[in-house]
Write a structure and sequence with these properties.
The protein is an alpha+beta fold and 128 residues long. Helix content is 23%, strand content 33%. The strands form three sheets. It has a five-stranded mixed β-sheet with strand order 2-1-10-8-9, with no helix packed on it. It has a three-stranded antiparallel β-sheet with strand order 3-6-7. Strands 4-5 form a two-stranded antiparallel ribbon. It starts with a helix and ends with a strand.
């Protein structure tokens, strides 16, 4: 093998080593990059707090990926009817309210952003 061939082989081996090293040293993404707290304030029964990790962009995704919410689809998105097994009773004018970091949410579950460190409180209210 001539000198040029050896140089090409050495260059290829070095390139492969550098690619492997870069892949090994690259920062690894963590599943569930955002840590959030979800508190459920039940009307009857024991309140619960969930410490969750998620990649969800919006509250609806967070709730659904953890099996915590369900309800009918409306023109505005998910109408939360059931949270953590407790269902709002329309005949008693019950509804689930959402607060984020101590303030009443300005958006519904479909468009409420989820950020690292957020604290969501879902409260079952009675009376419109």
């Amino acid at each position: 093998m001539n000198r040029t061939g050896k140089i090409v082989i050495i260059a290829l081996v070095m390139a492969l080593v550098m690619i492997a090293l870069a892949a090994w040293l690259a920062p690894q993404t963590q599943k569930g990059a955002k840590a959030v707290t979800l508190q459920v304030d039940h009307l009857e029964g024991e309140d619960k707090t969930f410490e969750l990790r998620t990649d969800a962009e919006y509250l609806r995704q967070l709730l659904e990926e953890n099996g915590l919410a369900s309800g009918p689809e409306t023109q505005y998105g998910l109408w939360i009817q059931t949270i953590d097994g407790e269902t709002a009773d329309d005949s008693k004018q019950q509804w689930w309210g959402i607060s984020v970091n101590g303030e009443f949410a300005q958006y519904g579950a479909d468009s409420q952003p989820v950020a690292d460190g957020d604290v969501f409180v879902l409260t079952l209210n009675e009376g419109y």
